[in-house]
Design a protein that fits this description.
The structure is a homohexamer of 259-residue chains. With 259 residues, chain A is mainly α. A two-stranded parallel sheet of chain A has the order 2-4. In chain A, helix 1 packs antiparallel against helix 3 and helix 2 runs antiparallel to helix 3. The longest helix of chain A is centred in the N-terminal third of the chain and has 29 residues. The N and C termini of chain A lie far apart (54 Å). Chains in contact: A-B, A-C, A-D, A-E, A-F, B-C, B-D, B-E, B-F, C-D, C-E, C-F, D-E, D-F, E-F. Strand 1 of chain D pairs parallel with strand 3 of chain F.
């Protein structure tokens, strides 16, 4: 169960309220990569988790994110406050001003109500940890952009604290994933089909004077990879070869025949 | 620009239409981790990307996912077809039956219209690649669950193909991220605050007879980590220490004073 | 800030998992009148509240609702578990089964992702308390319906506990509103226009053999009320009287003229 | 069935169109507490209602709110009109300007499409009346804020009329609820569990120098209430007492044992 | 303004309640092509319309659709009623049963809350009339499907009435569009670019053994049309010709140069 | 399957980035009538279509719209780019600036995530073609409004191209519908009820000094039509005549009796 101490983990100070910036801050309050999204993603993963050790980790960080929600909310509220009485300030976020009376609402900077569609919860622990590593990376970059658009020292200081914690969480989730000792490409129990798994399909082609490059790199060259021209272009507009050994489809066709 | 060849990358065969399974398949057509989500996430990241090589990668895989959308759609359509005339089949997905005439719709298995809220696009290349790695892991596990709930051999074969490709993409995105040569914990340009970044806050406590464990692991122990008891519990219900050197808040308090 | 003790306020027992009932339980987990909606509504009202005493009340109950979310989640998870492997069970909620791996998700019983559109937060304390009284009444009746559709004794016991707490909260919010000492019809600062405020417009008429009644009651009769026939019907299809003293519009017309 | 007279209940006059204010007005056209929300909430409650007298009330007010939707729409349309040709005006609401051609759309001030998620309809008459009382209070305060941000006399006059009617409706719904003669805390048929219903859980604690107060008031003190310290803090971080008579959990534990 | 007569335009009779069918009926109550969508689309178009004659038409039909909403609601309510007490019936729509108490809700058959995203309102009269013609055609086919899945004579009779009215409206909107005397391909004021407007791009190609046909018909052959092979395939994978007279791009390139 | 050539069908040039206009452009990227909506509507209709010739048409145009999505995206990206570093520019669309790093996102001009609720897909070919004709008309007028609010010649040129193609598509869909040879008012298989289908209900009345006109036109007068006064007003507030030959209801009543 939860307990709440009416004292922020971090006490916020705002010298110079900036309603437009308050509106931007809502990205981290009720936005797609914000603190409620983090808190809910980890807590619900934790609720479903059957590994007691990593369940503890998920609940630890999920709970910390709830406290961060409170910090961001306190910060945003101070910046949004002029909307209570100032018509011009109110234009920066009429939903906050008119419907919310100048207080924070569970919306992002464009007034979209927070939705659980933002969450990534699969109930497969290593997959969930990957979703969390990505989520922390997104939250970090969003805090960095907020810092870059902010002048108020107290606000920058609070955002620096919150941004730092996202890196902490990213590090913890990476360690937790690593400690599971799984091959990074082994997800679930059913193995991928050998051969097909190593084919790279060149489905986007860039040639000609103005065309963009058709790039090769570690993601499609080397011993691990078989580079396959986009089937539709394989021999002009001719149909996909169905009988040759080296085409994508024929391989699968054969597999089906041999069943 | 796009070109379309009216021939599936993979020709689907369904011997035994199963409307309930057709409904489940919609998770990969119009669902949160489905093929349209993948196609749009990578294509839009690619459109915004300023690294020409990885832009090519994003467009290659984004385009392949569009083709997968077509395969899943063809598969789902064959399973949903009995809904056209069979009242009992129609009950498995009345939206498909009544509004869609038994054809596929851009919804998930519970009839939720596809929404771009599913996408994770930040415009920060390494962050986007992390989101993509996680997205592929999720798509893989969803295909595995569909295979486990399916009896039709032709359908299982198609799903195995699609599932395999997700691992291919995961491998490519991992290689692309790795080839950027960035420290995994270095996101954006502003560094985290030293000291605070290594603190693990024990915000979820499990003690007593029925309590769950308070776990330690590589994610919160070792030279890299400083384990901090949840501030609220630090010394019972007493207020957070504000003046001692070793508390979370005092450190930050001092930093602000010294500005 | 928040702290979490990994021990439920109420330990749940389920003897006989019932996936369809687990799906129904999601109404109180991720549904419009469920525990997250309550937790967020009160906590955000509390964050915005400038009355320190009632702010404490809002945070107390908001925090308790978070704990209830955990209880409902634990209960739903036990009922949904068969969806992990049982195809028939999975049909009761394919989103939970296929995308969520049989764990709880932040959705309602029809798979709709939780949305902050469910919340009612105005930043006007007495108005917010009224919204909360209504919210608790709704949550109570939803728990009652769940109890009526449930056979498992352990589940019924937990639901009875949760249902009881909603009445507790309703009582507390009523006392808090009452203790503000405001006239129930005085909302905000601008008074309603005298005269117009006491007019009841009979805009829905029921006459004829099969027509429904045109009811009178304390809500439109007595000294407090002036009963006004629907303007459109006032004298057939003739235009609204604009000059007579006793019509709705003329009153307002005169007021404007006299400015 | 409905009939419509092409004459507003209230004829609107706007001397000075203000596109930003027109955008704000959309809160009461397609917003969460706006006129369509009111019209639909009451009309659908009325459609489901089996008490013929209060059904009439619900249809009367639901129909009046439809007429108010038209008044607000007429008002907003006049303020938004400059968006048809004026680029700067268009920036106040590009959705209205570009997609809607400068006419009203069924959105709120931040362009969110109206959604039935705003509605509170339970089919339990007294509960629905409570939701309606709260809805009217919210609509009243929103109109007051609009009046405060408006300079145009004709617009203020119309808003004053509409605001007044919300108080009228609040009064009517209160009278209708009161006339049902129910104990305010008796919702539905299943009684709450005695004892537990009177416990107030102090789940949010505020102590220390900067902590906020831990308030007592009629909502948690007096003969009616038993004040219970937040279980997690009951005796420090020790587990919840399970065997003592006076703890929350043990009471329920005993009840279960005695079945 | 609106007036409501508590007597349905059409009195519904249901001999044999069928909760699953009641759930399907919600498509026409709170669904994308349902009666509220029609009522709101036409009424809001009417509110914005500056052509007094067609404004009258839009309000006439918009108002009639509101009455249809009431008929469908009355019908659905009778079919859903068993959900109040019957657990098995409740499983057909747990949102209706648990949250709505067995009454109608403003949702579709899959429990999605009605959203104004369904509406098509542009403020350009002829465009709006085209949207309405299409909307009526969709509503007609949805009613037909409902009739095909229904056994109850009273219900079929009501649906036949409602379905008939959609054809009436379609006919009226077609006459209204026709009476405007506009060239069907003249939309707005800016003419399309000659030449480009008559080019048909063959962007989907079907060749090979299993490929689908590459069709020609009145939509891409004849004097009116210039058939252009998909630029990407024009000459294999070579870049788009930019300088030749006969390519798509060169035409536009030349136009830009000649400015 | 899809192939992508990394070269736009139309190469965009922007001399003068205008972030506010970039935000407006998102209407055609991720908006209700934008290019993704068109691409998905036609492609999914095509996937479901069983008429091989018109299926080809749907896939041709659906694929072209995907290419248009890329053009609009490239255009919007150039206009939004200043948001990366310029705080004032960022205020035009904080979601793009803060969450998206100044790149395009799949949202409209008010930040609403694209949703498949925008799509109209019924699986009835002639009905779908009607929806497409209307969709193209809407897209045309939206492009025209964007052109009117734009000063940059390169941008206007690109928009003129895209706008022109919408007329091309409208023409093609009209020809395809026409070539099916169906009576325009014959939708599906069940015929409307004779008599009722020709009745026009005058449900919106405009009389009195300020009332709007009660219009007659080809949509409600002539041999084809029977004009019926709104039942509620037919003879004042008296009940609907149920037994006379000429009333709406009695006709149906008789039909039911004669079954």
């Amino acid at each position: 169960m939860y307990h709440h101490v009416k004292k922020l983990m971090y006490t916020v100070h705002v010298d110079d309220p900036d309603p437009c910036f308050g509106n931007m801050l809502l990205e981290q309050f009720g936005g797609a990569n914000g603190e409620l999204a983090a808190a809910m993603q980890y807590s619900i993963q934790g609720l479903n988790c059957e590994d007691p050790e990593r369940k503890d980790l998920l609940m630890d960080i999920g709970t910390e994110e709830l406290s961060h929600l409170e910090i961001v909310g306190a910060l945003a509220r101070l910046h949004l406050k002029p909307m209570k009485n100032d018509r011009e300030a109110a234009e920066a976020d009429p939903l906050v001003a008119i419907a919310g009376g100048g207080g924070v609402t569970l919306c992002n900077s464009m007034g979209n109500a927070w939705t659980a569609d933002y969450l990534k919860v699969t109930g497969e622990l290593d997959v969930d940890l990957r979703s969390n590593i990505a989520a922390e990376a997104r939250a970090k970059i969003v805090y960095e952009r907020l810092i870059n658009f902010c002048d108020d020292p107290g606000t920058k200081d609070a955002l620096q604290f919150l941004m730092t914690r996202e890196i902490t969480h990213m590090k913890a989730f990476m360690a937790a994933l690593d400690s599971m000792g799984k091959d990074p490409l082994s997800i679930g129990k059913i193995p991928p089909t050998p051969g097909i798994v190593d084919e790279f399909y060149n489905d986007s082609t860039g040639e000609g004077d103005d065309g963009e490059i058709d790039a090769r790199g570690p993601w499609n060259e080397g011993d691990d990879w078989k580079f396959v021209e986009a089937p539709a272009f394989n021999g002009g507009v001719k149909p996909l070869a169905r009988k040759s050994e080296d085409s994508v489809n024929s391989g699968r066709g054969k597999k089906r025949l041999s069943k």
